[in-house]
Design goal:
The complex is a heterodimer. Chain A is built from eleven helices and four strands. The radius of gyration of chain A is 24 Å and the shape is elongated. Chain A has a four-stranded mixed β-sheet, sandwiched between helices. Chain A has one domain. Chain B has five helices and three strands. The chains are: A mainly alpha, B mainly alpha. Chains A and B meet through helix 4, strand 3, helix 5, helix 6 and helix 7 of A and helix 1, helix 4, strand 3 and helix 5 of B.
Chain lengths: ~300, ~140
């Protein structure tokens, strides 16, 4: 029974649950809690899937009569489950290594090609590691790191943004760097990489990306108010870029701009409920399914 | 850390010199150009050029018994490449999404129109922007 229940749970958490959650509007009101909920959803799905494989593989131990074929089949299932687990860890390591080497290379070039600017450290907003790239296209991004993070702003962005809008952009980027939002994304990317193309979906990664941006938008809004954040978003998104490769991010941007029109309430109750749901997603299957099964397994031992 | 920052500045200066030179340069030429107005060891310039070669931004070409150094690409080209990596990276390719985090993705013309509309709808409900905010003068 245990493998069936866990398998059904894994399918439910990996398939319909993300699709249903992505359609709801309330997570954007509590982005931090919602990110934790997406993490819990992913963790619970992985644990359920691995648990199902292990339970199915070990099932043979609970049977009084064991044939050679049964033992081989169940051993294979157990081995396969272990392969999936190793693959997951391996994918994570690969993504981490690749991300860091790409970032190191990019940072080296930024340091050579862009100029550091101390002028931008004004008021109580100091931006360590800021670099100005002489380029008319307005853009801004950050390169996360432990001590060598960078915030890169193009001179075109400096020209087109007023001081509040620029403060909004910089506060947004600093929020990413301080909270290491990139690590959250890295885990979701690894999860996507680890599973075959036909089972993985973009929903989880896209939703967590959007929520992370919203979280950083909130940090910017607290400093300069909503209108400069919205204006900066539109200025930097809606400038025709010569790169050709248009990213499919406009939809999320629209949601971010519209969100700035809504009052910034604290939504404490909603956040608490979301955190509770996230905890339940991980704890309830563990306590109700995994622990009883482990106890039964322990009883078999002499 | 101060030493690292100094080395970083020096790397930038050496690159500027290489970019402004007409052909491949020797360590001696770079040293002579940069040591004019300050105390700078020959070996430091050698180290810097070595580091730049390791970063694949300059390449060594053999010239008789000595080595000459040249930039792998012009400065404008490298800035353009860097920007392309930054702008393309976030949306389309999930691998790069975590390498750098962009403020906002580019919008298609249709999306841009929708964005401006949303902003226009937002403006009347909000108070006018603070008077302290003004357009920044062009920075050179």
């Amino acid at each position: 029974m245990t493998p069936v229940v866990l398998g059904a749970l894994a399918l439910l958490l990996a398939g319909p649950a993300p699709v249903l959650l992505a359609r709801r509007a309330w997570p954007t009101r509590v982005p931090r809690a919602a990110i934790v909920l997406w993490q819990a959803l992913a963790l619970s799905a992985v644990l359920a899937a691995l648990g199902a494989g292990l339970a199915l593989g070990m099932d043979v131990l609970f049977r009084p009569q064991r044939g050679a074929v049964e033992i081989i089949v169940h051993s294979l299932v157990t081995a396969l489950t272990c392969v999936v687990a190793v693959r997951l860890v391996w994918a994570w390591a690969k993504v981490a290594i690749r991300t860091r080497s790409r970032r190191r290379r990019h940072r080296a070039l930024v340091d050579l090609l862009a100029r550091p600017d101390r002028e931008l450290a004004r008021g109580d907003l100091t931006v360590p590691g800021i670099r100005i790239l002489a380029e008319q296209t307005p853009f801004a991004y950050c390169l996360p790191g432990v001590r060598d993070s960078r915030v890169v702003v193009s001179s075109g962005a400096l020209d087109q943004l007023d001081s509040d809008e620029l403060a909004a952009v910089l506060t947004h980027e600093l929020a990413h760097l301080r909270a290491r939002h990139d690590l959250v994304l890295e885990a979701f990317i690894a999860l996507r990489e680890a599973f075959p193309r036909f089972v993985r979906s973009r929903t989880t990664l896209e939703q967590s990306r959007l929520l992370i941006e919203m979280l950083a938008d909130d940090a910017a809004r607290r400093r300069v108010g909503a209108p400069p954040v919205a204006r900066a978003l539109v200025t930097l998104a809606a400038t025709s870029a010569p790169t050709g490769g248009l990213a499919a991010g406009g939809h999320g941007t629209l949601a971010r701009v519209r969100r700035m029109a809504e009052p910034a309430g604290s939504h404490r109750l909603l956040a608490a409920a979301t955190y509770l749901a996230a905890a339940a997603l991980v704890v309830v299957p563990t306590v109700t399914i995994a622990i009883p099964w482990l106890n039964r397994l322990a009883d078999l031992l002499p | 850390m101060a030493g690292m920052a100094r080395l970083g500045n020096l790397e930038r200066e050496v690159m500027e010199h290489i970019w402004s030179s007409t052909g491949p340069v020797t360590v001696r030429e770079v040293h002579e150009a940069l040591a004019r107005e300050r105390d700078l060891a020959y070996t430091t310039v050698m180290t810097v050029l070595d580091r730049l070669a390791k970063k694949s931004v300059v390449r060594r070409v053999r010239d008789g018994r000595a080595y000459r150094y040249e930039a792998v690409a012009g400065k404008d080209q490298m800035v353009a490449d860097l920007m392309r990596e930054a702008l393309d990276g976030a949306g389309s390719d999930a691998h790069r999404a975590a390498a750098l985090v962009r403020f906002v993705d580019e919008a298609t013309p249709e999306e841009a129109a929708a964005l401006r509309e949303a902003l226009a709808g937002l403006a009347p409900a909000e108070t006018s922007p603070p008077s302290t905010s003004r357009r920044r003068a062009h920075r050179g």
